[in-house]
Write a structure and sequence with these properties.
single chain, 166 residues, alpha+beta, Rieske Iron-sulfur Protein, 3-stranded antiparallel beta sheet, 2 helices, 22% helix, elongated, binds FE2/S2 (inorganic) cluster, iron, metal-binding, transmembrane helix, Rieske_2Fe-2S_sf
Length: 166
């Protein structure tokens, strides 16, 4: 290559320099703004707070349905959401199950079908679950009911997020 081909005119030098500095400054301003705008969406769902649902004294070995509300933050949108749980106490242990059928999401009820006595029953497609939430063989659901995170403080039952049973 000749020396002539490598020569950069003053005008070209200024062009390159200003373009580089301008791009750097634009990125410095734009990136924090983009990060600020997307931040709520990038956060993994914040842990749902534990919500007081009932008193331990209200529980028996028979599952009982309790309705409650939680504050849910979904990216930029904050709302109050209704939830329900089937809760019972047996052998000193409290269990809180989600009423959402794991087949296609209908709502299960306790002991409402003659064929499935003392079990949770889903009327949508005749799904059934044992008292501990395990799905009954040869019914449509293929996984157990979700179980709520649970804490007991001063005789009050607090529920968090429903999670799949392992
Ligand atoms: S939705 Fe419950 S059995 Fe299908």
């Amino acid at each position: 290559m000749s020396e002539k081909e490598h020569k950069v005119s003053r005008r070209q030098f200024l062009n390159y320099t200003l373009t580089g500095v301008g791009g750097f400054m634009a990125a410095g301003i734009t990136l924090p703004l983009v990060r600020f705008a997307l931040d709520p969406a990038l956060k993994t769902g914040a842990d749902t707070e534990m919500v007081a649902v009932t008193q331990v004294s209200q529980l028996s070995s028979e599952p009982k349905r309790f309705d409650f509300k939680i504050d849910q933050v979904d990216a930029w949108y904050e709302s109050e959401v209704s939830r329900s749980a089937w809760i019972y106490q047996e052998d000193g242990q409290i269990v809180a199950l989600s009423p959402v059928c794991t087949h296609l999401g209908c709502t299960v009820d306790w002991d409402t079908n003659e064929e499935f006595k003392n079990r949770f029953f889903c009327p949508c497609h005749y799904g059934a679950f044992e008292k501990d939430g395990k799905n009954v063989d040869r019914t449509p659901p293929t996984q157990p009911l979700f179980v709520y995170d649970l804490e007991v403080r001063d005789g009050t039952v607090y529920l968090g997020r429903p999670r799949p049973q392992v």
